[in-house]
């Protein structure tokens, strides 16, 4: 199987599994506890059906939209995801270049393996930085200020990771950052020599944005759950979010909103956007899917801030359903990480082209000339 054979999520996942050692593949693939929320994030889209309009003289539909003050060429962008250097040796640089080529947003994680400054030099496309509140508040301020100087246009604060979810696959396979060998993982690393050679011969693994504050997770191996519990502030509050919004002074999203009440609170503190997300089913297992919550939240705060749906996206029709239910755009993480593992920058470009073409084709089939025509009248929920 090669990249040209990848047409959908399962194809990219299969090729990524072939290319990656088991601990790293399962870090991408897994969720928390029984992984029920992970599964439900995608299954939720099957609860409703699209209603097309005919004879509308669509021509070439307009797929552009504006989020975080940035015009993008399709209503889908890359979610912030950690440690991309593990999935391909070019890591974040490959993702940022691919996103720029397709005119959409690259989102950088606090736990990226490429620095804020380096990505700014690599890509001139639209960029967002994802922030965590650290116990060391000086680190939080440092990250915000560096993003300002480096030309990032938007920021999001992830609020659903005050403690780490129980990701049992990480325990089972001994996943750490950076990777270290143990009895279980040794065979998997040995049977993936191309990955191992690339990992050892390219730039050294480090959490590039925080390594000057702590060596944990860079030169001192840590389990991801252990790292989160040591470094992130479990006392994070709405006041912290408000402080970050003020210090940043630009488009700012709260990522991890899942209730109407919290969406309203985000409006009150001055957020310009919210990202409906349960961290890809990797935190609170048994929670609702973002798509299930979208209609109620859109009814409550739609028009007051931008709503981004993050979680479960596998198809262009999922994006169209989310927009019809009230989202301004969607973001995805797991699927694009599989494409990165499958083929680096070329893999991410291949995926983005697939998704662009799916959205375009299905807009034509829906009879929609622009994204603004996607509304609740285009959806029927099954009873």
Name the CATH homologous superfamily: Aldolase class I
- Low-pLDDT sequence parts: none
β-strand amount: 5-15%
Rg, rounded, reads 20 Å
Counting DSSP E segments of at least 2 residues, the number of strands comes to 12
- CATH top level is Alpha Beta
Give the count of structural domains.
1
**CATH architect. name:** Alpha-Beta Barrel
Mean pLDDT: 92
Widest sheet, order of strands: 4-11-10-9-8-7-6-5
Order of helices and strands: HHHEEEEHEHEHEHHHHHEHEHEHEHE
Gap between N and C termini, in Å?
40 Å
Please summarize the sheet with the most strands: 8 strands, parallel
Helix count, per DSSP? 15
Shape: globular
Structural class: alpha/beta
Helix proportion = 40-55%
Provide the CATH topology.
Answer: TIM Barrel
Topology, pairings included?
Layout: H1 9-19, H2 22-29, H3 36-43, E1 48-50, E2 65-67, E3 70-72, E4 76-78, H4 91-101, E5 106-108, H5 116-122, E6 127-131, H6 137-149, E7 154-158, H7 168-173, H8 183-190, H9 193-201, H10 224-231, H11 238-248, E8 252-257, H12 260-268, E9 273-276, H13 290-301, E10 306-310, H14 316-324, E11 329-332, H15 334-366, E12 379-381
Parallel strand pairs: 4-11, 5-6, 6-7, 7-8, 8-9, 9-10, 10-11
Antiparallel strand pairs: 1-12, 2-3
Helix pairs in contact: 1-15, 4-15, 12-13, 14-15
